[in-house]
């Protein structure tokens, strides 16, 4: 897929584990893990907003585009 | 919605009543059939026929000037006979009893499972799509079974009654089962679409 998810990079910058982030965002660890590995069909804006708020970053820091 | 849940509860209760009631009726029907076959050498058989030879019409009196020329024409009669309990007749009777009961039990069973998932607010599942398709097939097969029953009746009359060449068997065929089956199959398609939409939404985080 051309959309790259750099969630693990931002999590490392914030020294936050997957479990902690999932608890803060109130979503399941499974879904967050799927998002981290880029195996989801899409991300809702409210989830993206919550991620940016918790990780103190911009959507472009989490999502990247690389042509196939 | 309160009205919808009241209706669904009523349907579920009725389905449970039909399920257990049908079990009792099936056993009762089987026992009665077996008892009749074992105690009697024949079974009472009757079927309406159209007898064109009876053409004598009787005039009737009109009560109002709005109608005229009223006649009564008795063109329908009933053939009654004692059908001996031969192996083929007994096998046919048991076949129709088991086939009909199998279809009815399958329909009630699938609908019970279906309405249980609705009770748990999870109607759009792959299993429900399969259940609706099975129910649709069973409803369609009831029409097939009734056609087979008509054919069996016709065969019995034609092969056993000499005068059947002078009359026609009255055969009232209903296609309600086929129409219901088609509607349920379309509903199964809608539920399949709902299941796919739900799956796609679930893949969004």
UniProtKB/TrEMBL annotation, chain A:
Pfam families reported in the protein's UniProt record: HTH_26 (PF13443)
Domain HTH cro/C1-type: 13-62
SMART domains: HTH_XRE
Annotated InterPro entries: Cro/C1-type_HTH, Lambda_DNA-bd_dom_sf
Protein name: Helix-turn-helix transcriptional regulator
Lineage of the organism: Bacteria, Pseudomonadati, Bacteroidota, Sphingobacteriia, Sphingobacteriales
TrEMBL record, chain B:
InterPro entries with a match to the protein in the record: DUF2975
Pfam families the UniProt entry points to: DUF2975
Keyword Membrane annotated: yes
Keyword presence, Transmembrane: yes
Transmembrane regions listed in the UniProt entry: 12-35, 91-111, 132-157, 169-188
Keywords for the protein's UniProt record, in alphabetical order: Membrane, Transmembrane, Transmembrane helix
Record-given protein name: DUF2975 domain-containing protein
Source organism: Mucilaginibacter pankratovii
């Amino acid at each position: 897929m051309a959309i790259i998810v750099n969630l693990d990079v931002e999590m490392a910058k914030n020294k936050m584990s997957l479990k902690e982030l999932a608890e803060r965002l109130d979503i399941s660890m499974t879904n967050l893990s799927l998002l981290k590995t880029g195996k989801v069909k899409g991300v809702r804006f409210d989830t993206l907003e919550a991620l940016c708020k918790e990780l103190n970053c911009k959507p472009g820091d989490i999502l990247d585009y690389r042509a196939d | 919605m309160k009205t919808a849940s009241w209706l669904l509860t009523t349907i579920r209760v009725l389905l449970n009543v039909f399920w257990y009631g049908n079990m009792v009726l099936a056993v009762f029907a089987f026992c009665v059939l077996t008892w009749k076959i074992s105690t009697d050498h024949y079974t009472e058989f009757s079927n309406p026929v159209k007898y064109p030879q009876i053409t004598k019409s009787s005039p009737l009196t009109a009560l109002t000037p709005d109608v005229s020329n009223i006649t009564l024409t008795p063109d329908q009669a009933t053939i009654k006979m004692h059908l001996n309990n031969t192996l083929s007749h007994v096998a046919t009777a048991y076949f129709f009893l088991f086939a009909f009961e199998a279809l009815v039990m399958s329909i009630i069973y699938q609908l019970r499972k279906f309405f249980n998932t609705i009770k748990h607010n999870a109607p759009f599942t792959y299993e429900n799509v399969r259940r609706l398709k099975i129910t649709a097939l069973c409803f369609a097969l009831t029409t097939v079974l009734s056609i087979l029953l008509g054919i069996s009746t016709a065969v019995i009359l034609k092969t056993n009654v000499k005068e059947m060449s002078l009359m026609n068997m009255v055969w009232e065929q209903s296609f309600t089962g086929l129409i219901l089956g088609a509607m349920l199959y379309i509903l199964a398609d809608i539920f399949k679409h709902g299941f796919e939409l739900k799956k796609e939404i679930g893949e969004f985080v």
